[in-house]
Design goal:
mainly alpha; transmembrane helix; transport; single chain; membrane; two-stranded antiparallel sheet
Length: 337
């Protein structure tokens, strides 16, 4: 769903506005994140986590109906030879903006072969594709890693000088449980909200970066900073310091995601754009699946080892971003190879 909406927005937006409007959509992602944390603080303590999942699925059901009202990309319709549908979409946009359609006809060669996996590995895009896959996997690994690590840090109360939480067992005997599991307190939810707000904190700077420095350099800088802040989590600090580090990490990983979303949608032509985004999204899911084993399993055995692994992956992604062969800043969307 996220990939599809971004492709449609990318294909509708003019070149000069893409670097500004696409990052602004992060505001709605933030609103959803804050909503689910707020719901969890109310629903989980009262009627349990299962009801949280049921309530959280309602917007997805509504979206199934809402998709019917989203217009198909005019670029896609032209590439498939459906110029009538493309014209209808463009005329609707013109009416909405109270402007007239330019004179002329839509003319574009119909692509007989579209969305072939081999096109992603074509000589022109081979290096770009492989590096993009590495970056997507690493960014997802870091993004979901810090989200899960935030919960783990709060649950284990890993603040400098804090004592392990005591877990009551049968017979009113107190013992140190190796898992240190406990229900989130209101202050824990507050910390989660503060760190989540960080996802929008760097948005203005990120927009300036991707529009003036370019997609590649901006992404390499934010990935390098992400690696640094992962290591800073190991510093002995107060609760406020921990919240500050989590805030910055959430801001940086969100900026990474925004930039790679924009770059991937811009670098591929219309014929393979959806496939390129789809395969990148698959690598993203792999990173998301691996993250819990590091944030919740390896972190239990070696806190510093987990942080070093997250940091190393971010450094690799920063190098991959800096050495990407194509810069898409100010580049018109390509219709064909």
């Amino acid at each position: 769903t996220a990939v599809g909406r971004l492709i449609i927005k990318t294909e509708f937006l003019p070149t000069k506005y893409r670097g500004y409007m696409l990052p602004l959509s992060q505001v709605f992602w933030l609103a959803g994140s804050l909503l689910i944390i707020g719901l969890a603080s109310v629903v989980v303590p009262s009627i349990g986590w299962r009801w949280l999942i049921r309530v959280a699925s309602i917007p997805g059901i509504i979206l199934i109906v809402a998709f019917k009202f989203i217009p198909e990309s005019a670029r896609f319709n032209v590439s498939t030879g459906n110029t009538r549908a493309a014209l209808a979409t463009l005329e609707s946009i013109a009416r909405m903006n109270r402007s007239a359609m330019p004179e002329g006809t839509l003319a574009e060669p119909i692509l007989e072969k579209r969305g072939r996996f081999a096109d992603l590995l074509d000589a022109k895009y081979l290096r770009t594709t492989l590096q993009i896959w590495v970056i997507w996997l690493g960014i997802s690994f870091a993004y979901y890693g810090i989200i899960l690590a935030s919960a783990e840090l709060l649950e284990r109360d890993l603040v400098c000088g804090s004592k392990p939480r005591v877990v009551e067992t049968a017979g009113d005997l107190e013992s140190q449980s190796p898992c240190h599991c406990h229900m989130f307190t209101p202050s824990d939810y507050q910390t989660m909200i503060i760190s989540t707000v960080g996802e929008i904190a760097l948005n203005p700077l990120n927009m300036l970066g991707i529009n003036f420095l370019g997609r590649r350099l901006s992404l390499s800088i934010t990935m390098g900073c992400t690696a640094l802040f992962f290591l800073l989590l190991n510093i002995c600090t107060s609760s406020a310091g921990l919240i500050g580090f989590l805030f910055m990490l959430r801001a940086l990983v969100a900026a990474n995601f925004i930039t790679i979303y924009i770059y991937t949608a811009e670098v591929y032509p219309t014929a393979t754009r959806a496939l390129g985004m789809g395969t990148s999204g698959s690598l993203c899911r792999i990173g998301a699946m691996v993250a819990p084993f590091i944030s919740q399993v390896l972190m239990s055995a070696s806190f510093l080892g987990a942080l070093c692994l997250f940091s190393s992956v971010c450094v690799i992604c920063a190098i991959s971003a800096f050495t990407l062969p194509i810069e898409t800043k100010g580049r018109a969307l390509q219709q064909t190879k």
